[in-house]
Fold this protein.
Amino acid sequence: QVQLVQSGAEVKKPGSSVKVSCEASRGTFSNYALNWVRQAPGQGLEWMGGIIPIFGTAKYAQKFQGRVTITMDESTSTGYMEMSSLESKDTAVYYCARASVVTRHFDYWGQGTLVTVSS
Amino acid sequence: QSALTQPPSVSGSPGQSIILSCTGISSDVGSYNLVSWYQQHPGKAPKLMIFEGTRRPSGVSNRFSGSKSGNTASLTISGLQAEDEADYYCCSYAGSSSWVFGGGTKLTVL
């Protein structure tokens, strides 16, 4: 059974950075991509970006280009999403999700990590 | 990439059928048969309900079905049940390893 386990909630100051992790069982991302999706309070889902571990190159939504870095440590099957220059509007639940590179859907999701940005 | 368009809310009575719509553009919904639908209950992670427009994952009730015509995808829920009350999001592959979600529809079971 695939499980994606994310790191715990974070409280950050405006202007700082946050790094959220997503740990999976070995082999989970063979032929799959790791993606990050966020959800602001009371709002919808927003795709942020993703990485296909076998290729190693990340792709970002234009909105997050330059401010978000997505990486994957294949030795530990752990993915990371780092966001810099945090603002209050970045307060949201951040989800990691596995996506099939063939059928392009998100089949497994992490439990979500709440990031609160507040002075 | 603009979000796909979904009605903010839909309601129905138990036993009824309802249709949730999801409208995109020619470069996302219109270009790929790769629309997926997700159900989200409050405080929970999204759950995959439909992928590739019409396919249901193992374990998802056959009361859920998907379709697509042009730039619009639809999710039909038949035999509405109380536990179907949730937010529903459509999502389309948009090419070059990118995706776009809809704004979500809140389904209320009366």
